[in-house]
């Protein structure tokens, strides 16, 4: 009975070792998040992608101007999805979950002011 237990444990350990080898570098903690971020032009794209990378933990970021969808590959051992939203909002862009502060938003170049423009017609 004891021998059976030892064999079972050996089996479990070798299975775990095999699993961690598969991912290449130990436990794989990369995760992909995809959500909507307001923006208008190529400058917005650069700003959004730079903002989400700022501070590290992000391996890849790509914002699509046509669909307004941002796809981010990030390390879940370092960041939560909400952190991504906060970083983008801090740069003046609204996301599905976090809105940018008005002060930051108003400092964006005119062509990047993605909210309702009617209230500020010159
Ligand atoms: Cu822009």
What would your notes on this structure say?
The protein is α+β, with helices and mostly antiparallel strands. The protein is 39% helix and 16% strand. It has a domain at 30-114: 2-Layer Sandwich (Alpha-Beta Plaits). It has helices at 2-22, 42-53, 81-90, 102-106; strands spanning 30-36, 58-63, 69-75. Strands 1-3-2 form a 3-stranded antiparallel β-sheet, covered by helices on one side. The mean pLDDT is 87. The structure holds copper (II) ion. Copper (II) ion binds at residues 39-41, 43-44, 111-112.
What's the rounded overall pLDDT mean? 87
CATH class of the domain at 30-114: Alpha Beta
Number of helices: 4
Name the structural class: alpha+beta
Q: Please tally the β strands and state the result.
A: 3
**What is the CATH topology classification name of the domain at 30-114?**
Alpha-Beta Plaits
> Termini distance?
84 Å
> What compounds sit in this structure?
copper (II) ion
- DSSP strand content: 15-25%
Shape descriptor: rod-shaped
**Major β-sheet annotation:** 3 strands, antiparallel
Order of helices and strands: HEHEEHH
The CATH architecture of the domain at 30-114: 2-Layer Sandwich
Q: Taking Cα atoms only, what radius of gyration do you get, to the nearest Å? A: 22 Å
The helicity comes to 25-40%
Poorly predicted segments? none
């Amino acid at each position: 009975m004891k021998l059976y237990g030892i064999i079972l444990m050996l089996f479990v350990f070798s299975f775990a070792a095999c699993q961690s080898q598969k991912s290449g570098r130990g436990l794989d903690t990369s995760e992909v998040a995809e959500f909507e971020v307001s923006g208008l032009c190529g400058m917005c794209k650069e700003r959004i992608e730079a903002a989400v990378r700022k501070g590290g933990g992000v391996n890849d970021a790509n914002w699509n101007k046509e669909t307004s969808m941002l796809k981010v590959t990030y390390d879940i051992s370092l960041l939560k999805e909400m952190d991504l939203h906060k970083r983008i909002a801090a740069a003046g862009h609204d996301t599905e979950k976090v809105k940018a502060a008005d002060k930051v938003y108003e400092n964006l170049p005119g062509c990047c002011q993605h909210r309702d423009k009617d209230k500020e017609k010159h």
